Structure formats: C-alpha cells, structure tokens
Amino acid sequence: MKWLIWLLSVIGIELTGIVSSFFAGDIAGMYQELQKPPLSPAGSVFGIMWTILYALIGTALFLLITSKAKGKQTAIVLFFLQQALNFSWSIIFFGGSHYWLASAVIIVLIFLIIICIKVFYRINRFASYLFIPYLLWCLFAGYLCLGIAILN
C-alpha cells in the first residue's frame, strides 16, 4: 500500500509541473527568444531537470505523509506552500513575462525551500536531503531569472 502512496505523491507533483507549463504557454519558444545571462543551459535541459526534481519532491512528500513523527502537519503545510510558489513561477515568468515579479517569487521560494529542509530534517532526514538538489537548482534558476530580468 505504501508504494501506491509514493506513486500518487510523485505523479501528483509531476502533474503540477505539467499543468503549470500548460498555463505558462510556449515556454520553449519564449526561452529561445530571450536574452540570457552566461551559463544559461539549452532549453531542453529544463524538462529533464524538472522531471527528476519533481520525482524527488514527490518522494519527499511521500516520506512526510507516511511519517509518524510529531509536527508533520507543519511540514506538509510548508511543503504545499512552496509547491504553490513553484507552480506559479513559470506562469508568472513565461505566461505573463513578468520577469521581476518572477524574480521576487523565486527568491521567496528559495527561502521557503531552506525552511522546508530544516523542518523536514526533524520529521524525516531523507525528505530534507531530497530537497537539496531542488534548492541548488532553484538557486541557479534564480540567477537565470534575475539575469533575464536585467537583460530583457
């Protein structure tokens, strides 16, 4: 039964990325047209990275949901707050071309991810470790977002 909870957690998080990208519009076309800062990866990298990251994020959710630790409700609320910001970012950035607002959102998201890592650590250490690649990627995405805001 636990495998089903894990599968639903991962699929649910992957679906948030799919739905967000649907509302964001032509992400690949828009990314290609933007002036980008140094170290900007090819557009094809993002889909691969987010698929992997969403699987890690979904697995962290599974670990929180199935934990018997005290305080897991707070961790789950924080989880969904960061997920709401994550969901909205591409809609704001690509769908609305609001690069500065998207920069502010990703900065708040980064801080929320750091808080999640700290809170998750008390509930399930592995769940907190699964958020580290997500944090690193969002730090890089924040650099790209701010660079694009400045250049465009």
TrEMBL record:
<feature type="transmembrane region" description="Helical">
    <location>
        <begin position="100"/>
        <end position="121"/>
    </location>
</feature>
<feature type="transmembrane region" description="Helical">
    <location>
        <begin position="128"/>
        <end position="151"/>
    </location>
</feature>
<feature type="transmembrane region" description="Helical">
    <location>
        <begin position="45"/>
        <end position="64"/>
    </location>
</feature>
<keyword id="KW-1133">Transmembrane helix</keyword>
<dbReference type="Pfam" id="PF03073">
    <property type="entry name" value="TspO_MBR"/>
</dbReference>
<protein>
    <submittedName>
        <fullName>Sensory protein</fullName>
    </submittedName>
</protein>
<feature type="transmembrane region" description="Helical">
    <location>
        <begin position="76"/>
        <end position="94"/>
    </location>
</feature>
<keyword id="KW-0812">Transmembrane</keyword>
<comment type="similarity">
    <text>Belongs to the TspO/BZRP family.</text>
</comment>
<dbReference type="InterPro" id="IPR038330">
    <property type="entry name" value="TspO/MBR-related_sf"/>
</dbReference>
<dbReference type="InterPro" id="IPR004307">
    <property type="entry name" value="TspO_MBR"/>
</dbReference>
<keyword id="KW-0472">Membrane</keyword>
